[in-house]
Each structure stands twice: as structure tokens, then as C-alpha cells.
Write a structure and sequence with these properties.
- The longest helix has 16 residues.
- Strands 1, 2, 10, 11, 12, 13 and 19 form a seven-stranded mixed β-sheet that branches.
- It contains 18 helices and 19 strands.
- With 452 residues, the chain is an alpha/beta fold.
- 48% of the residues are buried.
- The structure holds flavin-adenine dinucleotide.
Length: 452
């Protein structure tokens, strides 16, 4: 009996496999890396479990996602309180925001400027179909200029005018200044994000537990096995190419990048113009029990190449060896550029200003580790959604092929979105839905609101 082949053991692939196995289907999951989890996996460094960038399971996760992950851990999910710090120029704002923190961090003049600019944006919304205009409509021109536009240039490597407005809708707080004030007063909804779930043993424990449960239920999860292509016959997928051989497939759930899927199905032009932003991650082992008391420091400043500094011990509640800690930095970049190619020593020099800002400049560095991710963020260039629609329409013409997850749907998402999409598509396939049916029901999974 041929199986449903799931390509990729990140949250979306594992959730789809789970739904399929629950429905009694035979499932084989292929994972190119040595371990499961994808972008939200963990690895060992200096005796610590560290994540690929700061990862938390947000409270916005729906009940079925929480239930799945609780079962994966064999019990409960630990709840933790956020303790972040936003660095804007020389100023610092504790995160989650509080009115006192904002007033202390920004000073009265700056608070008034933000307030007036936000009110002005409500009365006369700034025009424009790009990211900068959308950020200004949501939070005011001043906040867009000092916070979101520099972040856009650093994270996506493009001026805000070249980025799509939907990036603003996905990533800038919903509800404008009122929502910010509500959040500051501690009355916000999920986007206030004051608490989050984080498992024992690193974020990757969620995926590892899920993979283990899948195996127990009869599913196969093969790590270190990359899919190399698809075999189509009369408009339907018949097999996945693995190590040059054909693995017969009744249907295929694919979480690989959308342009690659278009190439595999002989339609490379359908995804022309879609690309991803890469990330280089530097981890430093420091000779100190705790680096700072924050889980994440956010750097809005463009002159600092790192987007964030995050500390494993402050996510896990102190797990790991005493007297030492590991801090990580995520540096957005393009594949092949100077950051992508930099050695651990060069990267350490680049993040020195971030160490200085967080009071860690003098602490002895005991070791360094670098990780690189080529397709960390789908790049929402202006007008990207027309290309994405074209590419997804083309793929829906291949019977038995179901693209899902961050890279295949080309969507900025969180783990809970990826997981919910995987569960949904797994159930659809079990009910006998066609690729076209899945395409017709993708919209909610393409319009996400990101929790940061
Ligand atoms: C820096 C950073 C921080 C983030 N922080 C958070 C956070 O705090 N909270 C949150 O909810 N979300 C966060 N996210 C988002 C989260 O990581 C993603 O939503 C989630 O991992 C997407 O899951 P996925 O399964 O769609 O894709 P992925 O996690 O990318 O998994 C895809 C998998 O497919 C495998 N694969 C690819 N090609 C092949 C092939 N040819 N053959 C076999 N396998 C293949 C890959 O190795 C990978 O394991 C963050 C993302 C980044 C980049």
C-alpha cells in the first residue's frame, strides 16, 4: 500500500502527519535535517538546549493545537511570563509595555509626539499601499519612522516603500494606538502577549514529542532524508524522489519552499519573483550564570546588525549548567552576503555593540556556534501576493499535492498557525478532498496576524 508522504518535519508537516495517522492513513515523513522541528527545533550547545532564534508558543494558539502539544509532552505545557526589553536608539522600554515603562523609557516629549502622531493617523490616515504607510496608519507616522521603518530595512533588507502593505497587517499590532494603550495597561488580548508556553528541554521538545507519538501510532518519521523531486503522471503526483529512487506516494503534503515546488512540478515561472530573507544565528557561551534578566532584547536600531539578543536560560527557567549561560543573536541577511559568510569571530565583533547595550561587554566568551537558515522569512515585496496566488493556483492543478506551512504557502506565520494549517490539511486529505479543494480553503491560512 503506498503512503501519504509528508515532506518536512516542522510544525506543519508533523501536524498534518498526526491528523492523517489519526484517520488511519499510512504516513511517511521525510526530514532533510538530522532532527525534527524545522525552524522551531532546538539543538545542543555547551550543555544547553538552544532554539533557532527565540521561540515561544503564544497564547493565541487554539485549543486543538494546545491539546496536540500537551499530548506531545505527555502532560502539561509550562507557562512563563515575558520579560523583554526594546532598545530604540539609546532608549530602553521594558516589554510587555506598561504606561510607566513607556513614560520612563521615552520621556514625556517623545510620548506626546507618539500620541499626537497616532491621533493624526486616525483622523487623516496616511496613504500608500506599502509597509511604511500601513505601519503609519496603524500606529502613527512617528512610530513608523522610529520603529518600523528601520526594522524593515534591517530585517527585510529593503526600504519600506518596496515592502507590501500586508506585511504591516501581519506584523504591526492590530488595533492601532488604542490597542497599545490597552496592552500597556495590561488589558490587551492575545497580542498583548504577556505570557507564553515553553516546554521543558527547549522549544524543540514539542516537535520531538509529536514525532515520538506519531511513531507510536504507526507513522514513520525518517530524519536525514531529503526529498529531491516529485514524479508526476497524467497531472497527478505518483512518487517522491529520494536518494535518486522513487518512493511511491498516494498523496504528498509538501512544506518545502514554494519556488522549489513550482520547479519540481515543471512550473518554475509561476513563482518567479518570490524569494526569502535568510538569517544567520550566532550563539555565545558566556562565563556568567545569567547574562541579563530579560528573555529577549529587541534592537530597533539599524546600526546594530542583530535583530535580537535572546538567552536560553531565561526561557527555560534556568535549565542548563550553573555559572555559564548562552546568549543568541539573530542577524537577518541574504544568502551569500557578508553576514552569511562571516566566521564566528567576525560575527562576534559585529554583535559587540549589542553586548555593550545589554551590559555584557566585559564578560568572558567561552565558545561560539553559528547556524544559518536560507529561507527564514518569506520576503513580502510589493505585489508578492499576486505571484503567490498564481503559484498556488498552478500547484492546485497537480492532483494529490498539498503545499502547507510557512515556506510552501509563502506566509509569515507562527508555530500555532503552521500547526493548525497542518491539522486542517491532514483532515481534508483523509476526507478525500482534492488539491483544488485545499486551494479553495487556504485563504485563512494566508492572512495571519503575527505574535512577536
Ligand atoms: C527567528 C525566528 C523566530 C521565530 N519565533 C517564533 C516564536 O517565538 N513563536 C512562534 O509561534 N513562531 C515563531 N517563528 C515561526 C516558526 O518558526 C514557524 O511558524 C514554523 O517553524 C513554521 O513551521 P513549518 O512546518 O511550516 O516550517 P519549518 O519549521 O520551516 O519546517 C520545514 C521543514 O521541512 C524540512 N525540509 C525542507 N526541504 C526539505 C526536503 N527537500 N526534504 C525533506 N525535508 C525538507 C526542513 O528541514 C524543515 O524541518 C519564528 C521564526 C523565526 C525565523
Amino acid at each position: 500500500m503506498s503512503a501519504t508522504v509528508v515532506i518536512g518535519a516542522g510544525p506543519s508537516g508533523l501536524a498534518a502527519a498526526h491528523a492523517l495517522v489519526q484517520a488511519g492513513r499510512r504516513v511517511v515523513v521525510l526530514e532533510a535535517s538530522a532532527q525534527v522541528g524545522g525552524l522551531s527545533g532546538s539543538f545542543d550547545f555547551a550543555g544547553f538546549k538552544v532554539d533557532y532564534g527565540p521561540h515561544r508558543l503564544h497564547h493565541a494558539a487554539g485549543p486543538e493545537v494546545l491539546e496536540l502539544y500537551r499530548a506531545a509532552l505527555g502532560g502539561t505545557l509550562r507557562v512563563r511570563a515575558r520579560s523583554g526589553m526594546v532598545h530604540v536608539g539609546g532608549r530602553r522600554l521594558p516589554y510587555p509595555l506598561s504606561l510607566l515603562g513607556i513614560a520612563r523609557g521615552l520621556g514625556l516629549v517623545e510620548v506626546v509626539r507618539h500620541g499626537l502622531s497616532a491621533v493624526a493617523a486616525q483622523l487623516r490616515p496616511p496613504e500608500g499601499g506599502h509597509f511604511g504607510a500601513e505601519a503609519a496608519r496603524r500606529l502613527g507616522r512617528h512610530a513608523a519612522r522610529v520603529l518600523y521603518e528601520p526594522a524593515a530595512r534591517k530585517v527585510w533588507g529593503l526600504p519600506p516603500e518596496e515592502l507590501d502593505a500586508s506585511l504591516g497587517r501581519a506584523r504591526v499590532q492590530k488595533g492601532g494606538p488604542l490597542a497599545m494603550v490597552r496592552a500597556a495597561l495590561g488589558r490587551g488580548g492575545s497580542s498583548a502577549g504577556r505570557r507564553y508556553f515553553y516546554p521543558e528541554g527547549g522549544f524543540g521538545a514539542l516537535a520531538e514529542g509529536l514525532a515520538e507519538n506519531l511513531r507510536r501510532a504507526g507513522g514513520e518519521v525518517r530524519c536525514g532524508v531529503a526529498a529531491e523531486g516529485l514524479v508526476l503522471e497524467q497531472g497527478r503526483v505518483r512518487a517522491v524522489v529520494v536518494e535518486g529512487r522513487e518512493l511511491p506516494a498516494e498523496s504528498v503534503v509538501a512544506t518545502v519552499p514554494l519556488p522549489l515546488l513550482c520547479e519540481w512540478t515543471g512550473r518554475p515561472e509561476a513563482a518567479e519573483g518570490l524569494s526569502y530573507r535568510a538569517l544567520t544565528l550566532l550563539y555565545l557561551e558566556l562565563a556568567r550564570d545569567r547574562g541579563t534578566s530579560q528573555d529577549v532584547h529587541y534592537f530597533a536600531d539599524e546600526r546594530l546588525p542583530a535583530n535580537r539578543l535572546f538567552e536560553a536560560k531565561n526561557f527555560s527557567g534556568g535549565e542548563g549548567p550553573a555559572g555559564r549561560t548562552v546568549v543568541g543573536f539573530d542577524l537577518p541577511c541574504a544568502v551569500g552576503d557578508a553576514i552569511w559568510r562571516a566566521s564566528p569571530e567576525e560575527l562576534t565583533e559585529r554583535v559587540r555593540p549589542a553586548l555593550e547595550r545589554t551590559g555584557l561587554a566585559g564578560v568572558e566568551i567561552l565558545g561560539a556556534r553559528v547556524r544559518r537558515m536560507a529561507t527564514a522569512y518569506p520576503l513580502y515585496r510589493k505585489g508578492f501576493d499576486a505571484v503567490r496566488d498564481r503559484a498556488l493556483n498552478e500547484l492546485s492543478g497537480v492532483e494529490g499535492l498539498y503545499p502547507v506551512g510557512r515556506s510552501a504557502l509563502f506566509v509569515h506565520d507562527n508555530v500555532h498557525h503552521a500547526c493548525a494549517a497542518g491539522l486542517f490539511v491532514g483532515r481534508l486529505i483523509s476526507e478525500g478532498a482534492s488539491s483544488r479543494d485545499w486551494r479553495d480553503r487556504q485563504r485563512p491560512f494566508l492572512e495571519t496576524q503575527i505574535e512577536d
